[in-house]
Every structure is written in C-alpha cells, then in structure tokens.
Design a protein that fits this description.
This protein is of the alpha+beta class. The protein has 11 helices and 11 strands. A hairpin with a 2-residue loop joins strand 7 and strand 8. The longest helix has 40 residues, at 50-89. The radius of gyration is 33 Å and the shape is elongated. The chain starts with a helix and ends in a 22-residue tail after the last helix. 29% of the residues are buried.
Length: 367
C-alpha cells in the first residue's frame, strides 16, 4: 500500500507554496482532479484485498478531507491578499472636489423632513422616534382603535405573525402611523410633553397618491389647560412657515379619529386650475392634515391622568407636503430610484433648512 503520510506532506507543501489563485487551482487539480493523485489511488482500491481496501479507503478519505481543508484555508488567504492589493491600487482621494455633473441631490422627502423639524424645533418641539415593527397595543389598542375598526383589517394593515403565540391578537404590525410613538413617549415621560414623531409608516395601498410605505410626522402636546385654540394657533403658524406665506386662509372641518375628541381636518386656501395648484390664493380648499384633542382613553393608556392634563395631536404626510410644495404629481416616483427624477426635484447638498437661513430658498428644487 502507498504511504499516505508522505503524499499528504507533499500535497500540503504544494498548497502552502501556491501564491495565487491559478497556482492553487493547479494544485487542487493535481490532487483531486479526475487524474489527480488521490483520485488515482481511490481507483486502485478495487485491486486490493477486502482488509487492505478497508484500511486504505479510510486513509484516503482522511487525506482527502485534510487536503480540501488546506485548500479552502489557502484560498481564503489568497482572496484576502488579492482584495487588499486591489484596494491599495484603487485608493480614492475623498478630499478632491466632486465634478459638478456627478454631484448628488438631497431627496425631497429628506428636505421636507428638515423643514418640518426646523419649524417645530423653533416652537420648542423635540423629535421622538419609535420602532417600525409594533405590537397591536401601541399601534391600535392604546390609541382607542376598536377591534372592528376598518384600519385593522388585513387589506389595510401588514401583520407579522408572533412565533411565540397562535393568537392573532398577539401578532405584530408594521406600524400604520407614527402615533404609536406618542404612546411610548407618554409611558416614559411625564407632562409637559411637546414632541413631533416623523418616520416611515406602512399600509396596503398603491396608486398615484398612496404607496405601501410613506412618511408621516405626528405631533403631540400635553400639559395643563391645553385647548383647541392652542392647536389651531400651532398649526396655523406651521403652515404659514412651511409654505413661506405671510397670510394663508385656513379652516377646520369636524371629522372623526378614534384617538382624538373632538377631531378635525385642516384645509388651506388654494387656487385649482386644470394645469396649476397655487397655495394661498383663490376660492378653493385643500385638505392638509388631521388633528384634534387627545382622547381621554389615550391619555389613560399612556399613564396620564385625563382629569389633570389635556393635549392635542395632529398628523400630516411628509410625502404629501413635498408634492404640494414642490409640484410633484405622482407619489410613486418618490421611491423609484430614478437618478434623472432626483436631479430634477432634488436639492443641492449642504443647504440645510433653518428658520433663520431659510427653508427652501437655499438651493431650491432643481426644476
């Protein structure tokens, strides 16, 4: 029988001596290929006796395993070496100025986010965040949303099965609104509370004005003696600052939301024609957001005494604000990753929005 120890040492030396992927592949073929040394030895097993075949087969299998492991280890070393050499030769000087024709653009949603945060930041609001994957308590129950409410139906909400429970009520949801952040804020913070909660939200819908994923900002103010007048004044100052108008007609229509009572929808004045929508002038109205006084049941769910505190809340779509302010006709184009679209509607980087430096006039949409 062949001395496999000597063959193993010879093959391992060849593996270690391989300095590139081609040389390593040659070693592999010479050892394990159709005419490789180990392969040829396995073919010769048929000429041995039963006992010799058993012993030799065991040795060859061990040898094959050891050589394959050595090949894999050397391959990883060579791949890392090649990558390091490639990176060393492809160094990019990030301090060089970018060419104007390849300069990136800030997405309109990111710009609107900056503008909204700047406006409410000056009013004393903090930015709060929460998880995208929510339990039904924070997304529905604590917000006074009944079990039979349409928003909880499967065709409107994305549910995720809880692997630890077969009860549907224990399922998670991909949050349908950032109102869940309001509940989480109330649970860990005592009044006075003044926050906005911008972020991604998800619903099962898709057309020119709806997408399965979109962006919202919700606001919450809780303190003693808060009234509807505070809500109206806050939102009026916001829309004037956002649309950069000295005067803007607004009106409030009674509405219904489970988490506010009374509830209202806010309209702003506009002029609608077949080819143009002008904010602030004309005899038409455009619904802009929903709002209302926080329902006592919601305050209780957040651990706040409704007999001592009151509050107001509102919610508005960031994508919708971008469409209105910058004349973008189709919401679906926001998420198509079209560089031409972004170059047209995007904003020059580093032009940050602020109430002192200006919101949208520092660079402007590239229309």
């Amino acid at each position: 029988m062949v001395d496999t120890t000597q063959l193993k040492n010879e093959l391992l030396e060849n593996v270690s001596a391989a300095q590139d992927m081609k040389a390593l592949e040659d070693v592999r073929v010479a050892a394990l290929g159709k005419k490789g040394k180990i392969t040829e030895l396995m073919k010769s097993l048929s000429s041995l006796s039963v006992e010799e075949k058993k012993e030799m087969g065991k040795q060859l299998n061990i040898l094959k395993t050891e050589i394959e492991a050595a090949l894999d280890k050397q391959k990883a070393i060579l791949e890392e070496k090649e990558l390091n050499e490639k990176l060393a030769h492809e160094v990019i000087d990030v301090t060089l100025p970018i060419r104007p024709e390849v300069q990136g653009r800030i997405h309109p949603v990111s710009k609107i986010y900056e503008e909204v945060v700047a406006i409410f930041g000056q009013m004393g609001f903090d930015v709060a965040e929460g998880p995208d994957i929510e339990d039904q308590f924070h997304n529905f129950n604590a917000l006074n949303t009944p079990a039979n409410h349409p928003a909880r139906q499967m065709q409107d909400t994305f549910y995720i099965k809880n692997l630890e429970s077969d009860d549907f009520d224990d399922s998670y949801v991909v949050r349908t609104q950032t109102s869940s952040v309001q509940i989480r804020t109330m649970e860990k913070q005592r009044p006075p509370i003044r926050i906005i909660a911008p972020g991604r939200t998800y619903r099962s819908d898709y057309d020119a004005t709806h997408t399965p994923m979109f962006h919202q900002v919700e606001g919450l103010v809780i303190d003693k003696n808060i009234t509807m007048a505070h809500l109206k004044g806050c939102l009026y100052d916001f829309v004037k600052a956002f649309f950069e108008l000295d005067e803007l007609p607004v009106r409030y229509r009674p509405s219904y939301f489970p988490f506010t009572e009374p509830s209202a929808e806010m309209d702003i004045g506009c002029l609608k024609t077949k080819t143009e929508l002008k904010i602030g002038a004309g005899n038409d109205w455009l619904e802009i957001l929903g709002c209302g006084m926080v329902h006592p049941n919601v305050l209780k769910a957040g651990g706040i005494d409704p007999d001592e505190y009151q509050g107001f809340a509102f919610g508005v779509g960031l994508d919708r604000l971008a469409m209105l302010k910058y004349g973008i006709p189709d919401l679906r184009t926001f998420f198509e990753s079209d560089v031409r679209w972004l170059k047209h509607y995007g904003f020059v980087p580093l032009d940050e929005s602020s109430m002192t430096g200006g919101l949208s006039n520092n660079g402007g949409a590239q229309r």
